[in-house]
What we know:
By secondary structure, the chain is of the alpha+beta class. The protein has helices at residues 167-174, 184-196, 233-238, 283-300, 302-310, 364-377, 416-430, 435-449, 465-474, 482-506, 522-536, 577-587, 611-614, 651-684, 696-703, and strands at residues 2-4, 9-11, 21-29, 38-44, 56-57, 69-77, 80-88, 98-104, 115-123, 128-134, 142-151, 154-164, 318-323, 338-344, 347-355, 381-386, 410-415, 510-513, 538-545, 552-557, 562-570, 596-601, 604-610, 629-639.
Amino acid sequence: MREMTKGANVGLADLSDDAGSVIASLSWSSTAGDGDADVSVLLLDRNGKVRTDGDFFYYNNPAAADGSVQLLGKTPTDGGSEDRISLDLTAVPEDVERLVVAASRYGGSRFGDLDDLRMTVADRSGEVLLGFSITDASVESAFIFGELYRRGTEWKYRAIGQGYETGLAGLATDFGIDVDDEGEGEGEEASAAGEAGGPPVEQAAEAVPAPAPSVPPQQTPQTQEAPRTQETPETVAAAPKRARGPRTAKKKVTLPSVAAKSLAENDAWRAARLFPAPNLKSDKEREVRATSVLLSVMAQVPEFGRRLTAAFGAPAGRMQTFTEVSLPHGDTPKRPDGVIRVERAGKLWTALVETKTNGNALKSEQVQNYMDIAARRGYEAVITLSNDVALEGSPLVEVKTDGRRKHKVALWHLSWAEVAHQAQMLIRHEGVGNAAHAWLLQELLHYLQHENSGCHGFQNMGPSWVPVRNGIDEETLSQGDPRAVEVVESWERLIRQVCLRLGGELGQKALPVQRTQRGTTALSRRAALADRLCEEGRLAAELRVDGSPGTITIVADLRTGKLRTSVEIPVPEGAYPLTSAKRLMRQLAEAPADLHVETLVEGQSGPRGTLERLRPEPGDVLPRDGSRITGFRLSLFKGMGATRGNAESGFIRSVDNAVDRFHSHVIAHLAQADRRTTRRASTAAPGAAPASASGPAAESTTARTPVRA
C-alpha cells in the first residue's frame, strides 16, 4: 500500500493492473463512538465545475445511472464508521476530468471532533492500493479528502485534505452547485405525508429531481424554483404560494406501507406466491431454492442487482446469473451454488457464489476450492452467503491465497439480513423502476422471511451461550474464559443485524455505537468486553438511529434475566425544570404506562418513577433539593429469552422485540413531538432558521442543506 502525504499524487496503474474499477473508503472514529459524517462525490469538467447539478452525488442522490458512481453506505468499525464508494472509472463520461471525494458534518459538528480521518482506495479485488490520513482537522464541517483525475488515458489520485467551515453548502457552491437553503417547511410536510402511508403499487410515488435520489420522504430535496423578483412586505403578503418547477426525474415506484384488504373468505386461505417455501424440508433444498430465488431477482431488478454487486467491485452492466454450474477442479468437478456475470464494454466480471442457509456454517475447505478455481479461470471474486454477519477481525472462514499468482481473487461475505435490508430499502423507501420490479422484490422479501426458507439472518448465539449463562448464574465464570469472547462476538453480530432490520423498516441509517480508546484493536476490545461480562454479568450495546433524539442503549442482564432498553434526553440549558418535566409528559402521552423515567442530575441518577405514577404529578420526578437537572433517562424492561436460538422463547427474539417495542412506543413519539415543535417554530418565525437540536435528530430534520438538482 502506498501511504500518501498531503498534495502528493500517484497513478493508479502504477499500483495495480486492475484499477479500472475501485472502491474509495472514507473512515473516522470517535472515543465516544457517536461521530458521523456523510460522503459526497462531484464530477468536474475541464473548468473545475460540475456539468449539471446531477453530477453531485450525496445522501439524496447516491448513484449515477451509468454506474460510474455509487455510494455504498456505512459499515460500522471499532469506534466509528466507514463509508465506501464504488467508482467505475471505465464508465466515467469523457468530458469529466476529475472526481472529487468529500465528506461533511451537520448540526454544528466539526471534523476536529473526530479521530483517524482517513481515505483509502482499493482495487476490485479488495486490495488496498493507497491511503491518506488527515491530521490537521479543526473547525471544518466539510473536507475534500482527495480526487481522481485523468492524465491522458490513465487515472491518478491526488491527496488534498482541504477543509471548509461553511459545510456541504460551501463546498458544493465552490464547484458550481446551485444550493437551495430553503424548504425545511416543505420537507416537514413531506415527512408528515410519508407517515400517513405510501401510494399503491399502481401509482408512481411522487418523483424527485433528477438523478432520482434514494431517500426517505423526510429527506426529499426541493425542486428548482423560478427566478425571484425583489420582495417587499407588500409583495410577500399579496403573492400566491410559489409553484414547484418542472420535475424531470423518472418516477419511482414503492409499495404501500399498508397492505390492501384481503379478498379471502377466511385467514386459512394462503395467497399464491411466486417463490413458495412451505414444502422445503432439507438443508440442500433450502440452499438450492434460496440461491436460485436471489440470483434470479438480482438479474431481473437492475437496481437490486447493482446494489449488491457494486460493493464487491463489479462494474455496472448487463447481469446474468446461473446456478449449479460444473467447473473442473482436479479429478472431481466442483459445483458452486451460483455464478454471477456482469458484462460491460465486452469485458466480463465473474463471481462464484457459495450459499448456506438455516444457520449452517461455511466450510473453509469448500471456499478454498472455489478461490483456487476462480484464480485459475481468471474470475474476480468469490461471494459467501449465510446467516452469519461478518465482523472486523473475526473472519467466518480462513483461506490461503497464492501470492505468486498475478490474478487476484477477492473473497466477500454477504448475510441474508443484508439482502433483506437492501430489498426493504428499495421497495419501502427508495423506489425501483416499475411496479413489476417492486412486486418481485416483495416476493423475494416474503420468501426470505418465511419460516421454512432458512434465510432469517443470525439466529443462534452459539455453543458457548448456555455454559456462559450458567457460569454467570453460578458465579463460576472467570475472566479470560474464551467462551465469553465467543458470546461477545455473537452479541455484536446480533446487534448489527438488529440495526440492519430496524434501518430497513424505518428507511434510516441505523448503526451500532462502539466506544473505544484510540489504538484499540477489535480483538482487544472484545476481550475487554468479555472480562466485563464475566465480572458484571451484563451485555451492553448502543444504537444510533437517524431521527432519534438520542442514542438507544440496550443492556442484557444475565443475572436477573431482564433486558433494559433506554435513551437519555438532554434538557436545554436554562430551561425551567418543571416546564421540562411537563413537556416530557406531553411528548410521552401515548407511551406505555410501565415506562421508567429517571432524572439525571449532573450526570448522576436522580428521582425516578413509572410514567403511570408521574403523569398526574410531573414534579415528582424533580430533585427536592433544587439540583440542576441535565436530562431524563427513559427505560423499558422486559424478560429475556432463555434459549440461544431464534425461537419464540429465545434470546435473539427477545432482543428484537425489546428494540422494536422501545422504538415504536417511545422513540417514535419523541421524534414526532420534535418535528411538531420544529414546524411550530418555523411557522412562528417566517424566514428565520428553525431552532436546531444537536445530534442525529437535528441531522434528519433541519440541519441538512437541501440541494436543488
